[in-house]
């Protein structure tokens, strides 16, 4: 509705938001536009086989990694083609290792 | 203040640093070098500045080249027209080997670095406003008069690389590093800690009638690093220089271990 801020749901291919689900059942709702700027988000986040349009079951991705990836989407979107100083993107070492283990297809 | 990144090459036992040299090529360098090069006009706009050089230097071809007049007991330098404070930049210096003499130094300088001295010296890098690689001796200078200067690139047995006529200078103002490349191979960061300044391409020369050419190869604006690269930096930092050899023990696929080691 007009007066209320809603996110309009994640069903269908034209939604502004999509939902990513981690292996331990956490759901992350991110802007489609931010996530797809990575190009191969689907390759990055999907387990082999399953790929529903908006609700991707990230079979192998634990929430500690997926939450970091979602934060990264916004960081990347925000600071690409921007003249502001790009701040550091903090990653804890154990999360970094998990990221390297699970995102072998990440678009560089 | 800029600091030299590499340990001196005088010890005979290889240090962990030389076993796993820090060849962390600036992200985006490959892309920059494989993109179509800037046209002549752009090269001239990023070329030597006829208004910002020693009086013994004559800038020619709109900035693409300079010639040093044969003045005795003088070291003379030139700065580029454009200074860089953000992004990744690369330029090629073409300096014929027989025109280098006793002191040929290639690097960068702030607007404040002196460009002339009344004796033969490695002028570039002798103060706090400039950083240079002595392409005859292979040494790195910053706030240095010569003695004790580290070798670049660091070699296990201290042997020196012969620097050919053409070399690339790679300035990464996002990471704050200055490095060089020869024959398509990046030699590693030579200097660090350069962020927050505006740095100009610079050289200092002593050889009479030497002709030094500069060819700007392009700049790349700062982009956020890929998540993979950020993770790599984090893991490498957590391991530290001395434990990079233990990458092989990490629970990663082989391709990812190679990625961690920049292989």
From TrEMBL, chain A:
UniProt-annotated location(s): Nucleus
Superkingdom of this protein's organism: Eukaryota
Residue stretches making up the SKP1 component POZ domain: 17-75
GO CC terms: elongin complex
Keywords: Nucleus
Listed CDD domains: BTB_POZ_EloC
GO terms of molecular function: protein-macromolecule adaptor activity
Stored InterPro entries: ELC1, SKP1-like, SKP1/BTB/POZ_sf, Skp1_comp_POZ
Pfam families registered for this protein in UniProt: Skp1_POZ
Biological process annotations from GO: ubiquitin-dependent protein catabolic process
Similarity comment: family membership: Belongs to the SKP1 family.
Name of the protein this chain belongs to: Elongin-C
Organism per entry: Canis lupus familiaris
Automatic annotation (TrEMBL), chain B:
Entry keywords, A to Z: Cytoplasm, Ubl conjugation pathway
Coiled-coil positions: none
Classification via SUPFAM superfamilies: Concanavalin A-like lectins/glucanases (SSF49899), SOCS box-like (SSF158235)
Region (Disordered): 1-24
Major subcellular location class: cytoplasm
Residue ranges of every copy of the SOCS box domain listed in the record: 211-263
GO CC field: cytosol; SCF ubiquitin ligase complex
Record's keyword annotation contains Cytoplasm: yes
GO terms under biological process: intracellular signal transduction; proteasome-mediated ubiquitin-dependent protein catabolic process; protein ubiquitination
SMART domains in the record: SOCS, SOCS_box, SPRY
This protein's pathway: Protein modification; protein ubiquitination
InterPro entries: B30.2/SPRY, B30.2/SPRY_sf, ConA-like_dom_sf, FBXO45-Fsn/SPSB_families, SOCS_box, SOCS_box-like_dom_sf, SPRY_dom, SSB2_SOCS
Domain B30.2/SPRY: 26-221
Single GO MF annotation: ubiquitin-like ligase-substrate adaptor activity
Sequence ranges of Polar residues compositional bias: 1-18
Residues making up the signal peptide according to the UniProt record: none
Protein location: Cytoplasm, Cytosol
Subunit-level organization: Component of the probable ECS(SPSB2) E3 ubiquitin-protein ligase complex which contains CUL5, RNF7/RBX2, Elongin BC complex and SPSB2. Interacts with CUL5, RNF7, ELOB and ELOC. Interacts with MET. Interacts (via B30.2/SPRY domain) with PAWR; this interaction occurs in association with the Elongin BC complex. Interacts with NOS2.
Family membership noted in the UniProt record: Belongs to the SPSB family.
Function: Substrate recognition component of a SCF-like ECS (Elongin BC-CUL2/5-SOCS-box protein) E3 ubiquitin-protein ligase complex which mediates the ubiquitination and subsequent proteasomal degradation of target proteins. Negatively regulates nitric oxide (NO) production and limits cellular toxicity in activated macrophages by mediating the ubiquitination and proteasomal degradation of NOS2. Acts as a bridge which links NOS2 with the ECS E3 ubiquitin ligase complex components ELOC and CUL5.
Annotated protein name in UniProt: SPRY domain-containing SOCS box protein 2
Organism of derivation: Canis lupus dingo (dingo)
Upper lineage: Eukaryota, Metazoa, Chordata, Craniata, Vertebrata
């Amino acid at each position: 509705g007009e007066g209320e801020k809603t996110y309009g749901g994640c069903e269908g291919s034209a939604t502004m938001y999509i939902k990513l689900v981690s292996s331990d059942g956490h759901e992350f709702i991110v802007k489609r536009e931010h996530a797809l700027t990575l190009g191969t988000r689907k390759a990055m986040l999907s387990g082999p086989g399953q790929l529903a349009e908006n609700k991707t079951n990230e079979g192998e991705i634990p929430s500690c990694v997926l939450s970091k990836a979602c934060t990264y989407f916004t960081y990347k979107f925000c600071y690409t083609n921007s003249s502001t100083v790009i701040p550091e993107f903090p990653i804890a070492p154990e999360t970094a290792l998990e990221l390297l283990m699970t995102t072998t297809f990440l678009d560089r | 203040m800029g600091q030299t990144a590499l340990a001196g090459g005088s010890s005979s036992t290889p240090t962990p640093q030389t076993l796993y040299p820090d060849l962390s090529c600036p992200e985006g360098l490959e892309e920059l070098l494989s993109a179509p090069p800037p046209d002549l006009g752009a090269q001239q706009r990023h070329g030597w500045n006829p208004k910002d050089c020693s009086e013994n230097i004559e800038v020619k071809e709109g900035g693409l080249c300079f010639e040093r007049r044969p003045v005795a007991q003088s070291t003379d330098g030139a700065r580029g027209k454009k200074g860089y404070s953000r992004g990744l930049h690369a330029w090629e210096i073409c300096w014929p080997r027989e025109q280098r003499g006793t002191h040929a130094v290639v690097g960068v300088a702030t607007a404040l670095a002196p460009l002339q001295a009344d004796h033969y010296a490695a002028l570039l890098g002798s103060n706090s406003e400039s950083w240079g690689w002595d392409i005859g001796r292979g040494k790195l200078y910053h706030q240095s008069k010569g003695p004790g200067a580290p070798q670049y690139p660091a070699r296990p047995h201290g042997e020196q690389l012969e620097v050919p006529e053409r070399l690339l200078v790679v300035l990464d103002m996002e990471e704050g590093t200055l490095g060089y490349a020869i024959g398509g191979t990046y030699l590693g960061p030579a200097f660090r800690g350069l962020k927050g300044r505006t740095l100009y391409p610079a050289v200092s020369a002593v050889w009479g009638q030497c002709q030094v050419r500069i060819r700007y190869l392009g700049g790349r604006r700062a982009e956020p690093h890929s998540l993979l690269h950020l993770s790599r930096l984090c893991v490498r930092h957590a391991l530290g220089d001395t434990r990079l050899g233990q990458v092989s023990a990490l629970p990663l696929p082989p391709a990812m271990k190679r990625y961690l080691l920049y292989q």
